[in-house]
Task: structure prediction
Amino acid sequence: MDDIRLIEQLFPLEEISEACAEEKSVRQGHISTLQQWWARRPLAVCRSAIFATLCSPVSTIEKSPVLVELLDQYGKPDDDIRTKLSSFTAQLAYWENVNDRDLLQAANKLIMASRESAPLVVDTFAGGGSLPIEALRLGLCAFASELNPVAILALRVAIEKLPGTDNEVLNLYKESAFEIQRRIHTAISRLYGTKSDEAPLAFFWCRTYQCPECNVEVPLLHDFWLAKGKRKVAVKLERFSTFMRFSFNVYSPAPDEEAKISIGTVKQTGAICPACDTKVSTKWLRQQGMEKLLGERLYAKLIKDKSGRRVYKVVNAKDEQLAKQAALRKIRNRKHKIVPSEHFDKNGIRHTWAIQYGVETTSDLYNNRQGVALLELLQELEKTKQTLLRKTRTADQALLVIMLLALTFNRLVVYGNRHAWWQSNGEFPANMFGRQAIPMVWNYVEIPINSEGAAGWNSAQNWISKIAIELAKLPQRGRVMQGDAANCSVLSRSADLVAIDPPYYDSIAYSYLSDIFYVWMRAFLRDLLPDDFVTALSPKAEEAIVDRQHSLAPNPKSDGHFRKKMFQALLEAKRILKPNGRLLIMFGHKKVEAWDAMLSAVIDAGFIPSVSWPVHTERKVKFRHAHIDALSSSCLMICVPNNKTTKQSISWTDFVEKLKVVLLKSIRHFQTSQLYGADLTTSLIAPACTLFREFEVRTDGEGHLTIGTLLSRLPTIVAECEYKDIMSYPSTKKYPNVLKAIKTLSPHTISTKSGPLNVKRSWLMLGSEHSLIMGAVKHANLLFSGKQKEADRIWEELSTEEKEVFCQLLRAAALASGVNTQERQLAQASLGRISLQMRTSDS
Result:
């Protein structure tokens, strides 16, 4: 390949992964605060990947004295050009440099070195907008398309309207938002009984059921905590009050009570009646929900007293009455009278779990008072919209402010529902999307929308103002189109880069989740944007995802649907790419089926992977380590048009030998970035597929090798290569007992019994009770028990050499366990936890 790009030579994985992890802690001014979207890629990796993909190779840069002098500012004097380019790419990734104009202009100069005009970057799965926004930040041309109307609204604001906007419009938004806050104060305060000496901050609710044995109303509480940070506050049940109901009491528990308080009346398997100890199953609770027999109860509140203290109290009869009798004000010509109520599409039930408990429509997400409060707010937004359309200097300015108000409203929607919960550790509300799903929440929090704190209108408009200011700094505007990725309006052979972060197979059901916003946006914006809000719910038929099977799902989208849509989308990408253009794909999944579908689409559309880089995107605190082998990285894959018409025929045996050389080299390279477990396996797919495209591989009795067959066989070949790599570490040979244990743990020698890590038994049979062996087993078992801090201490107490050997032991344990067994998951989860510790130890 004559036309090499920088990313095909180098990519500073460790630094970019560190930048991604740090960015996860950034909130104010970040694009993620504009509109809730799921599985956003960090801006760090988007910015650095776009730069490195469009930048010329090292050999071209070093021939230009101007560019060499430019790079001298970003590296050590004695560094070679390759090292300086690596350092520059890493600096570009860090959030603190996002407004460094000199750095960004230098990146633009390096990209433009061999070009006459700014390259066009196209994202046909734009979603949250990270890729096109970073293209604009680098001074490039950007085109974004997206099927979902919720994402489209945010994209239009971020990419088409805000860049270069002056303070006049931003001030107009702030003035409008402030006026709305002023007008809703009285209307909302009456719903909560605000007093001069007591301002309500939060109300705590729980679902209930009637015990089938003793007929008592059972409150469903995940735990009894209200605050368990610096101060300790909890509720306790006292029997009985009247009408077969428990009374609640707010108190400060003693230290010896804390374990008991953390165990509520409901857990994953079902619930227990505190009165008679009768247990009911989760299935029974689901049935009660579907039959509309689950109730709910207001049991506590948080207020601010006249001295400014935050005080938890038990609710009284007046509090309950206010919530129950909340009603809309009588306003002439009220436009918004009822909460939008559309039936959720049951094909997405695996992601909208609450459907199984009777949450069938969008209006079921809100209790009576929450619905009234949102309708009152929407009415004020409607009034402001009409004023803006009449009095604002230009229609474009009015529309931008109205769109910003709609996005501000959306920030309240994620908190103002029955599925938002109270984070008792920090005493603040958490929105309903703690997971990429709509789960059933047994005890939820209600925040008054006129609150000055989190989840109130004032807070929401502050967040939107900050991101609007940041987006206004972008040097130029892009173009946005609503539509299918398989049908893009970009001219043929006009794009220099198609950069996409497509749906992750069956991981996230974007359209089903976005419906909670869509129904409100449609009510507010349909008169201004009729083409965006045609259907009752967000469009789903053409969405490139796989719906997970469920007995209640009538017609879920299949693997075949995903393959077809991705093939069509990538075929369209090839049409719009210049002959020397690049396709950049960000993808991550543990399932072979997902990779088979994605890579089959890549190859069938006429591309070949040229290089892949696994970039870590998760913080340590977010890693789901306890019972699953979670991915903490995304695979960044660069593809080029495949112009090779003929391939050499080769036997499977010969192909495997060549493949092992490629894999072993990649494994040793990725080990320097602390890549283990599922992250390592998925990162080796692209190198394997690159080799696959060079040959026509004959298999015994099965014709020619397919990509699916290669992926299904790949784990076994990877295991053999990884085991060979483990045995090659010099430090391991200094521990004879450990080395003996690793030699015995050749792949697939351990029992497939489920449960805590069982390799201890095999090692003990060798008479090798070495401290490192026992420590590795203990580390995995502690994670299984949810005791991550204790597991972390085991790792932290090891010397540098012991840590290396410790990792090799766990790698061997994972390989020795059967595929898809819990032993392997636990060993790889331990490695994942350790990998995150290593990557964050210096941050």
About this structure: Confidence is low (pLDDT under 50) at residues 619-630, 748-755, 762-768. The first helix runs from residue 13 to 23. The chain is about 45% helix and 15% strand.
